[in-house]
Write a structure and sequence with these properties.
Layout lengths: L26 H12 L6 E5 L6 H14 L2 H4 L19 H7 L6 E4 L3 E2 L4 E2 L5 H14 L6 E6 L6 H12 L5 E7 L7 H5 L2 E4 L5 H10 L8 H8 L3 H9 L2 H13 L4 H9 L7 H24 L10 H8 L3 H23 L4 H20 L1
Parallel strand pairs: 1-6, 1-7, 2-5, 5-6
Antiparallel strand pairs: 3-4
Helix pairs in contact: 5-6, 9-10, 11-13, 12-16, 13-14, 13-15, 13-16, 15-16
Length: about 375
């Protein structure tokens, strides 16, 4: 077993959301939550949604710290309460803050994908066994009084049995309990879960905000801020992933392959670099960037050249391969087809090199058909 198992809710190369000092760009979501608290409308379940990497989990941890350090009466609007809080900030020296950093706060439960000791990797789903542990948590934490908080990160990673078990808790929530569900794809959740949660929507970030998040994480984007903004899609997490895995160079290679009319030796070399367990993250990123390349082709056909370029020569290539709305529709259709093919290939453990090469050749075939 790995000496220190990775955490399912920590992005590679980034501080964990519980360690993040400030939440950047999500002031509206914070205001919505505070307004509900200050008006005595603190719902028992909150669904925090938005794209990956925009601060959803950081918001959940900020809310949890706030709730566990703020007296119940203060946020429930009881007579004689002090002025309502205007921010979720708390004193970083507060004992609860230290306990949460160490994952030792008895009134907080973190539900996430567990570590599989036999296979020495994180499980792909949150299992029902993890949800069942909440029963013991509620029994033990009830003796402490005050609020209890459950963070589910991410709720859309629960399997069916786990989702049904959590639904029972949402239907009959324990007293003084707030559940915070982080969801990247809320459409994957049971409609009955969605109906029992109040939504907090986190927006995408602009380029300066992404730069601010990277600076807070002590990550230097170098001179690639424009390219990162082009590929990150408003997600600081995506930008960090690109930096950590050298994603800008990988995307440049993908563009170069198609600029040279699907240079087969170059494509074979790229595919071969995806093989092996050590390259699993690079393979996943390559699939995502290839999908993004096709999406940018479709967008170019619909709206014209994209700015800024993600790599030199990209705009000219996109314009050549997708000059019209008709070609844009064909690329959009191909994106769906290849997305399904990639998901199936990964599910059945298809050889990464074979899958990657197949996708490259399919893109080249489509480009040739459109050119003809």
């Amino acid at each position: 077993m790995t000496e220190t198992p990775p955490e399912a809710d920590r992005a590679s190369g980034a501080p964990h959301p519980r360690e993040t000092a400030r939440l950047i760009g999500q002031q509206a979501a914070e205001r919505d939550f505070l307004e509900a608290c200050n008006c005595g409308r603190l719902h028992h379940a909150w669904l925090i949604t938005g794209p990956r990497g925009v601060g959803k989990a950081t918001l959940a941890w900020r809310i949890a710290r706030f709730l566990l350090t703020t007296p119940v009466a203060q946020t429930d609007g009881l007579p004689g309460a002090p002025p309502p809080p205007e921010t979720l900030d708390i004193d970083e020296t507060h004992p609860v803050a230290h306990h949460m950093l160490a994952l030792s706060e008895p009134r907080l439960f973190l539900l996430r994908r567990p570590w599989d000791e036999k296979k020495e990797r994180l499980k792909q789903e949150i299992t029902v066994d993890e949800v069942r542990k909440l029963k013991g948590f509620f029994t033990l934490s009830a003796t402490d009084g005050g609020r209890r908080v459950v963070i589910v990160d991410a709720a859309d990673e629960m399997n069916v049995n786990a989702a049904n078990a959590l639904l029972k808790l949402l239907e009959e929530p324990p007293e003084n309990t707030v559940m915070l569900l982080v969801a990247h794809q809320p459409s994957r959740l049971l409609p009955t879960i969605l109906s029992r949660c109040r939504a907090l929507r986190c927006r995408t970030l602009d380029a300066p905000e992404i730069a601010e998040v990277l600076a807070q994480a002590h990550v230097d984007p170098g001179g690639n801020a424009d390219a990162l903004a082009a590929l990150a899609g408003g997600s600081a997490g995506a930008a960090l992933r690109l930096i950590t895995l050298d994603g800008l160079a990988l995307y440049a290679e993908i563009v170069a392959i198609f600029a040279a009319h699907a240079d087969r030796p170059r494509a074979l070399k790229l595919a071969a670099s995806m093989v092996g367990r050590a390259n699993a993250e690079r393979f996943a990123l390559c699939l995502d960037l290839t999908d993004l390349f096709i999406a940018r082709l479709a967008r170019t056909g619909l709206s014209g050249p994209l700015q800024p370029e993600a790599t030199p020569g990209e705009a000219a290539l996109l314009a050549r391969l997708s000059p019209s709305p008709a070609t844009a529709r064909r690329w959009a259709t191909l994106q769906q087809e290849l997305g399904q093919r990639a998901r199936h290939g990964r599910a059945v453990n298809l050889d990464p090199a074979a899958l990657m090469l197949d996708i490259v050749l399919k893109i080249h075939e489509t480009a040739a058909q459109l050119a003809a």
